[in-house]
Amino acid sequence: MKRVVKYTAMDPYYSDFTETYIGGDYESVDQQQYELEKYVGRNHLHGIDAIYKQEIIEER
What's the pTM? Predict the structure, then answer.
């Protein structure tokens, strides 16, 4: 299982980035994505959704 997600910054203070998650099943990939997004949004009142727009580029 592989998922490629593009994070596009909505705030000019932040940079765009692309992240690839690789795991044995959907649950593993979902957990990895959840942990990263929780970490990135940890200092913002509304979390990562107020900083980045997420777009799944590839999932297989």
Answer: 0.90
